[in-house]
Amino acid sequence: MKRLLGTAALAVVLAAGTAQAQTSVKIGVLSDMSSLYSDIAGPGSVVAAKMAIADFIAKNPGVKVELISGDHQNKADVGSQLANQWYDVDKVDLIIDTPNSGVAFAVSQISATKNKLFIVSGAAASDLTGPKCNANTIHWTYDTWMLANGTGKALVKTGGDTWFFLTADYAFGHSLERDTAAAVEKDGGKVLGKVRHPLNTNDFSSFLLQAQSSKAKIIGLANAGGDTINAIKAGAEFGIVKGGQKFAGLLVFASDVNALGLQTAQGLTLTETWYWDLNDANRAWTKRWQAERGAAGKFPTMVQAGVYSGITHYLKSVVALKSGADGKAVAAKMKEMPTDDPLFGKGTIRADGRKLHPAYLLEVKAPAESKHPGDFYKVRATIPADEAFRPLKEGGCPLVSG
Amino acid sequence: MCDVAGNRNRVFEIFGIPSTALFGQLLIGLINGSFYALLSLGLAVIFGMLNIINFSHGAQYMLGAFVAYLLLQYSGLGYWPALIVAPLIVGITGVIVERLFLQWLYKLDHLYGLLLTFGLALIIEGVARNQFGSAGLPYTLPDSLRGGQNLGFMFLPNYRAWVIVASLTICIGTWFVIERTRLGANLRAATENPTLVRAFGINVPRMITLTYGFGVALAAFAGVMAAPIYNVSPQMGSELIIVVFAVVVIGGMGSILGAIVTGFGLGVIEGLTKVFFPEASNTVIFVIMAIVLLVRPAGLFGRRA
Amino acid sequence: MEQRVADTLAKKPSVLRGHAETIAFMVMVAALIAAPFFTYPLFLMQAMCFALFACAFNLLIGYVGLLSFGHALYFGWASYLSAYSAKAWGFPPELAILTGTATAAICGLLAGSLAIRRQGIYFAMITLALAQMMYFFALQAKFTGGEDGIQAVPRGFLFGLIDLRNEATMYVVVLVIFLAGFLFIYRIIHSPFGEVLKAIRENEQRAISLGYKTDRYKLVAFVLSATLAGAAGATKAIVLQLASLTDVNWPMSGEVVLMTLVGGLGTIFGPVVGSFVILLMQYKLAAVGEWVLVIQGVIFVACVLLFRRGVIGELANKLRIRL
Q1: pTM, to two decimals
Q2: Neighbours of chain B (3+ CB pairs under 8 A)
Q3: N or C end: fewer C-beta atoms under 10 angstroms in chain C?
Q4: pLDDT (tens digit per residue) in C146-159
Q5: What residue ranges define each of the domains in chain A, with the CATH number in brackets?
């Protein structure tokens, strides 16, 4: 009867069976498997997790790692239900991934109450290491502040000093716009105007006309997903880029660029912390990922790479502690040890739970420049780890001030 | 009234010359309205004949765009052939759906038709997500319609102009067939009194099936038209269909012409809202619906049932 | 033997009908009291909230024949107000739930008076459109926290005394709310007022010609349904300690239709069974997530084509009793 609710069907034991007192942990990939974010995280994150575990066990045969996965369907209540149950019934030690900030906040809170560990790779909200931070949550791959600041700052430096914002009219869009505008103005840029559009707007032409007549050099897209894609598609049609203006996507993933096609997306600037075609290590990893995933035409996102990197560091810390039971202790150990993995290189985790690594300002190539499938970007600038993320004292995280 | 004056000042600020800019926005609104008109026309045609509200209309619109993408990917058929082939294919799936499922529901409460097509919409959307992911698929503008005209007050992309022309043609053509031809007369008669029409030797069930297929093909046509300019994703239809429902409530499904006029009209109103009060541009149609319900419950063109 | 029992049941419906319902009710209560010892209490609490939601929805579709495709509005807005008042204003849980419920009642009054102006399919479309409008408001409003929702809602102390952080006490509270709502709906259905509602469902014109102001009856039923849906949403926000966009969005409206349809439209126990079935399925499927939407769609189609009476409806029909 207990197993009646056992959602954890996909239990994969990837372990070496040494009988002696071995360290054993259970990891749950909680992700969006079926809806909006299933491309940027979802099944691809599970594959990344499996790879991380396999790689780690190859070097540390004494560790037993179990992996389960579940679909939070983008619903905070489903997510929190699953998290509760994983911790209580299935004895999961770590939950990872969790795109959708609503779900992430819920899981973060549960992890703190039950003293387990939560590594966020998929969700963007920078409040996770800000006012709502806790000692059991680590935010790995990226966040809204970093995207806003990275893109804003780097573009102003390279001449994009006048901005017009197309902002999705809800909390997420507002905070992206606010953070970007602050970064732009801090470096001497100017915000010429903005227009707030509702979520899931189909037709952006009216807003684009306003952006066009503002004569701003950069049109900042403080929105995500379908809205960003629709805005850029309409922009291509109205000759925005041909007219000399540029789009800056403040939350754009490789999968979005793929959905647009290079013909439409060329010239779009964005920030990511990981790009599959950046170096040989990433390319080799991507090949393995594609083989595991059974999708040669798909390319891993930074979120999925973050899952790999996060689990790798987590397992190192567990081995150092010889136990994964105490979430706070593992988190403290993770913060104490420097991180090092093939995908994100060397890095650190700050007291507020923020993982630090470099970010890359990328520009989408024109179709003619693209040499092979997935050859999306050229790197415009590298933002060093200590500049990429919000300074510790500005976050307002109680772990730091108190 | 005071509010309107205030808004006008904003136009001054944004555009400098309000009258011409306003004209540009009107034109854009008309383009949006094209999609509303095409979709609500399809709904009205289906409703008229089958007495079913086709909840899967949005999913079938999405299907049109997806089929266009697949045609391009796997058989190299570009935009122009897709504009005919995709609606045909989706229309045929509609015929199958009608034969397999819908025909069993005509004797029941109309609500079951709504529920069944809602289920179908979930299935179509779910399958599309599993096969193609949720981010969307690339579909670029046909080369022949790239670029645009500078009209002085605005830059009108050629593709948008084409959207208006094409959808107006389809809408008026449909209206003409239904209201002014013998085929249409038979259709209308079959809606009023199927038994009698059957007595004249007309195959009413087949007529119903083909009508559903045609309505669905209209949705797919709109989908192909949308593919180059909107995000081609599994969820592209589900949000839109709710707005189109509101459009249909406002217009009333009694008349074909009503569906067309309301579709275009509301597109324009929504377009203007994007200038004056962008935050409300996705709720304005619902607000209008509420007002219409208060003043004229049967809808602008509806007959009181 | 069974057949004979069924026959006698059919012959004396008035006496035995009551018995069948009483027995079923006893079984349900016993099951709900025993269940937390066997399965996860949080799941059960959530399921009871959905069950009440579905029962409230069923009051409209099953007994007045009105299909509301926008019931997420009342469920979701109640859960927002309940969560917000508990968190930001420090309301105790009973007041927070009342605040949420009252919000739903007001929304129901406004939306209902618009929607009942049209019948049948139009009614469904209007309720859907109004709910979508309110979804956008919820998205844009500051207090709802947009995509993040309202998180970490305190469960607080019931009447200032009873600590609801204890799962067992919380469970009892939810059980009481659910049963109270359930019995209230039962009472409505079997009151003279409920008889008029059923008359409207069967033939509105006849009810009008008998001198009933059917619009007024429909509106009252609508508000009652919205209010009870609100009570469910408000309770859920306290139980799960969060309120999010999911609860106001249109798929939620579709889900409650599905729950009721699976259980059986117009049966008293159907929505309860339906919501447990659907929720169980959702959690079961969490591991194979990719197909949730498709499976839900298939169930919809199958129910409409093959089991229009739903689980309980078919059962009741087999046994020739009312449930």
Answers
A1: 0.86
A2: A, C
A3: N
A4: 778 898 888 888 88
A5: 2-142+279-357 (3.40.50.2300), 146-272+358-388 (3.40.50.2300)
